[in-house]
Amino acid sequence: MISEPMVAVRRLGRHSGVRFVVVGGLSLATNTGALYLLHGVLKMWLPAAAVLSFVIAFGVNFGLNRMWTFDSDGALFGHLWRYLALVLVNLCLNAVLVPGLTALGLPYLLSQVIVTTVLSALNYVVSRLWIFT
Questions:
Q1: What's the CA gap between 130 and 67, in Å, rounded?
Q2: Phi-psi region at 72: left, alpha or beta (left = phi > 0; alpha = psi -120 to 50)
Q3: Are 69 and 16 in contact (CB under 8 A)?
Q4: Which of 20, 47, 114, 127 is most exposed, with the fewest beta carbons within 10 Å of its own?
Q5: What is the pTM of this model?
């Protein structure tokens, strides 16, 4: 017999929001690990290693969110273009909001955490309602 807490954990693991957070963590680990491997071990030029590790993590994030988080089997290129648009919007917002919050007196790392948290929540909604429909 399965205990009530285990049933709750199983239900929680089926929720796309939880999966979205897990995929985000895996993407962060992939980006960091690839950067370490490319720059730290293979001695690749840091800007190139940073871009390549981002691209690798992008692929992991897109693929896992498409297949696992949102269980989507729609048009791949339609999803990809919408996802790329979201990434571009995130980049622009991050470039404006982090310095903006920092100019208001917040420490830059706290500004980054706040912006990342808010954008992640918005990204979940956009992904669920627009990208992977």
A1: 15
A2: beta
A3: yes
A4: 47
A5: 0.83
